[in-house]
Amino acid sequence: MPKIHIYDTTLRDGTQGEGISLSVEDKLKIARRLDEFGIDYVEGGWPGSNPKDAEVFKRLKAEPLKHAKLAAFGSTRRASVRPEEDANLQALVESGAPVATIFGKTWNLHVTEALRVPLEQNLEMIHDSVAFLKSKGIEVIFDAEHFFDGYAADPGYAVSTVVAAANAGADSVVLCDTNGGSVQAFLLKAMSDVQAAVNIPVGIHAHNDIDMAVANSIAAVESGAVQVQGTMNGYGERCGNANLCTIIPILQLKMGYDCIPAESMTELVSLSVYMDEIANVIPNDRQPFVGRSAFAHKAGVHVDAIMKQPRTYEH
Fold first, then answer.
1. pLDDT tens track for 52-94
2. How far is Cα 248 from Cα 246, in angstroms, rounded to an integer?
3. What are 9-24's pLDDT values in tens digits?
């Protein structure tokens, strides 16, 4: 079966959700549970942003994960410093994580209004940051932040940011629907242009602001994406991230992709519940595949048929 790499960002992007706060011990428990489950990449957090995440990486460096690759998240260098002098990039190196996932600006609006640097300088920041991390022997994933909004505003420039990362040696690039407002046809057109421009693996990171994060992630895989980023139970800011508890069984059970060890699939429900318990979140009973009501039938014709043959009313 074709391999799709699952990248879990529950410990970083998931904790951006309102009401979710994880301690160091919580994060370590979740990281090890995801590792046991068979997730390929576990993002431990942003080591340069707060002492809690720095401690998580320190602990995981002393007792490494067995299956999953630990990823440290950060940004490209600041405009005013060289990469070797940038505290954020140094924190990524010092974390000991074998994978660094860095985000860079791809939307010209963000470059001119948030970073307030010339467009060309932003390309240099992306290139320099990736090249620096690669020189340290680290696997580098470039998260193209706001890629689809950037593509809508200026397709050529948005693609040029991804090319800059690829030319600097990025191992893969992940296209981020950071505002979560893209529809499939547009998303796939943008993705196609990236695939034509670079010769490295492409992934997808979708947010759920118009309830299309799962659908967009699946469509991206069908169009050649080999990495899917998301969170367990869809945790995340605003309307959440792409829900890995839905994406994994769709890809593996419905479409024949290889995402996790086959024997781990029976643990998906308990993993979902485990996450809610640690995060102190009320479970969504109507969540596909793992919710208590996902295969529940109340009465009447449905129940009569189910008792005779479950396939009559279960996908």
1. 999 999 999 999 999 999 999 999 999 999 999 999 999 999 9
2. 6
3. 999 999 999 999 999 9
Residue 201 tokens read as 């693996």
Phi/psi of residue 253, nearest 5 degrees: -90, -35
| C-alpha closest to that of 249 among 240, 241, 239, 260 | 260
Helix (H) or strand (E) holding 8: strand 5-8
Beta strands in 18-92 (DSSP E): 41-45, 69-75
Residue 212 CA to residue 205 CA, distance in Å, equals: 12
Give the pLDDT of residue 61: 95
Strand partners, 176: 205
Average pLDDT over residues 246-256: 98
Collapse the DSSP code of 313 into the 3-class scheme (helix H, G, I; strand E, B; otherwise coil) and give the result: coil
Query: Tokens standing for 180?
Result: 């979560």
Please work out, in degrees rounded to the nearest 5, the angle formed at the alpha carbon of residue 21 by the alpha carbons of 20 and 23. Answer: 145
The neighbour count for residue 269, using CB atoms within 10 Å, is 16
Sequence-ordered strand ranges (E) for 80-133? 99-105
